[in-house]
Amino acid sequence: MLDSITPLLSDPAAWAALVTLIVMEVVLGIDNLIFISILSNKLPEHQRQKVRRIGIGLALVMRLALLSIIAWLVGLVQPVFTVMGNEFSWKDLILIAGGLFLVWKATKEIHHTVDPTPSHDVMDKKDVMINNAGAAIFQIILLDLVFSIDSILTAVGMTEHLPIMVIAVLVAVTVMLLAADPLANFINENPSVVMLALGFLLMIGMVLIADGFGYHVPKGYIYAAMAFSAGVEALNMMGRRSATKKEKATAARAQADQAEARARKAEAEAAAEKA
User: Fold this and answer.
1) Is residue 39 within 8 Å of 137, Cβ to Cβ?
2) Residue 200, Cα to own-chain centre: how many angstroms?
3) Coil, helix or strand for 86?
4) How far apart are the first and last CA of the chain?
5) Which of 80, 193, 230, 255 ranks highest by number of CB atoms within 10 Å?
6) Alpha-carbon distance 138 to 171, whole Å?
7) Which contiguous run of DSSP H or E holds residue 82?
8) Tens digit of pLDDT for each residue in 41-80?
9) For the segment 175-205, what is each residue's pLDDT rounded down to a tens digit?
10) Helix runs in the chain, H state only
C-alpha cells in the first residue's frame, strides 16, 4: 500500500485529482446527510445522535467495502437487458430504485409536514414504525447503499488510483460526521428549512431516476439550484429574525412607556395629596 502511495506524493496531477475528488465526495455526502438528518429528527430525542452516528458509520463501511470490490463494482455499468432500445445496467436499476424510494419518502414527509393530522389509513400505520430506531436505520441503509454506489462510481470515473479514492472517502465521511449534529439541529429548529430539505431530497430522487434512465443531469446545475434556494431561505430567515427583534423592541418600548406613565401618575397623585 505504501509503495503505491509514495509515487503519488510527488505527482501534482494526483494532488489535483485528490482535491477535486474530496470536493465531489463531500458534496455527494451532503445529500446522504440531509436524508439521515431528516429521518433521525423523527425519532425520540435520546435516539437521534446514536442513529445519525450509525447511519454515517454504515455509509463509511459501505463505501470502503465497495472500494474493496471495485472490479466487480465497475462491472455494474455493463448492460444487462434492453427495453425499447434503452440499455439498463445494474447501476441504472439501483439508481432508479433508490430515486423512487427517495421521491416516495420525500413526498410522504412533505404530506405529513403540510397536513400533520393523522388520517389513520393503511399507509399511516407504516409511519408509526419511524419511532423505532431499527426502522429508521433500515431506511438509512437503503439510501446509504444507493449514495455509496453513486459516490464510488464517481470516484472511479475521476481517478484510477485506489489510495486517492480511499483518502477522499475518509475525508468526506469525516466531514459528514462533524456536520451531522449541527445540520440536524439546524433543520429541527427551523421548520421552513425542513420543507426546503425535503424539496432537495425530492429533486435528488428525480435526478437519480433520470440518471438511471440514461438522462444525465450535470450535478453542477443541481447544486447551483440548491445553493440558490438555500441563499433565498437564508435571506428569509434573516428577515424573520429582524422582524422578531423589531417586535420585541417595540414591545419593550411600550412596556417602558407604560411604566413611565404609571410613575408620572403616581407622582401626580402624591403631589395632589400633599397639596
Assistant:
1) no
2) 8
3) strand
4) 99
5) 193
6) 25
7) strand 79-83
8) 888 888 888 888 888 888 888 888 887 777 677 677 778 8
9) 888 888 888 888 777 777 778 888 888 888 8
10) 2-9, 12-40, 45-68, 70-74, 90-114, 122-127, 133-158, 162-189, 191-212, 219-274
